[in-house]
Amino acid sequence: MDLSQPIRTVIPSLDGPVLAVLVRTSQALTGRRVHQLAGTGSEPGVRKVLRRLSETGLVTAVEAGGSTLYTLNRQHVAAPVVEQLVNLRQFMIDRLREEFRQWRLAPVHASLFGSAARGDGGPASDIDILLIHDQDPAYPPALWVDQVSDLAELVYRWTGNHAQMYELGLEQLDEHIVAGEEIVQEWVRDAITLAGLDFRQLRTARRSPR
């Protein structure tokens, strides 16, 4: 899955980014503005896509002065499908949260980080998942190992992207925090909580005297 433009998983042409722009706003936009927000293709190419989509009724085109303004026709039967395609990354996050709710050995914290969290990865990007647990890192229970392995397989089946699991015991997390490792700041900045404590709360708790 293209993590920056999920709709391109199904619509790899310029139509995908153009539709993504229209899904994300209710404002009427000129072809030039759609091109600027899409960040890809040429302006004539974007205008051609908009004209074609308006012929299908999925996009509404209204003349205003010397310009044509475009909006997504949200009453079109295809509009909900387009909206779902644009929001595939959020659907993936929701699936991950549901999967963690079913774990018999729950993590202290689980989150999405990296390009998958920021939404700036590509089709070949890994999906990075931080897992913090209270198991013995040297001898984790078989159930825990199986859960992590099964999740990695599920993520690949859901998205076509490989999952990169970053597993830490609580004491290992403490070491990362004390050492001031840069990746800790990345987790603070980007982490999207999937299960357990929010990472920022967990970091504060681990830094407090115990």
UniProtKB/TrEMBL annotation:
One GO molecular-function annotation for this sequence? Answer: nucleotidyltransferase activity
Q: Name one Pfam family in it.
A: NTP_transf_2
Domain Polymerase nucleotidyl transferase, by residue range, is 93-179
- Annotated Gene3D superfamilies: Beta Polymerase, domain 2
Q: Which UniProt keywords apply?
A: Transferase
Q: Which InterPro entries match?
A: NT_sf, Polymerase_NTP_transf_dom
Name the UniProt record assigns to this protein: Putative nucleotidyltransferase
From the broadest rank down, the organism's phylogenetic lineage runs: Bacteria, Bacillati, Actinomycetota, Actinomycetes, Propionibacteriales
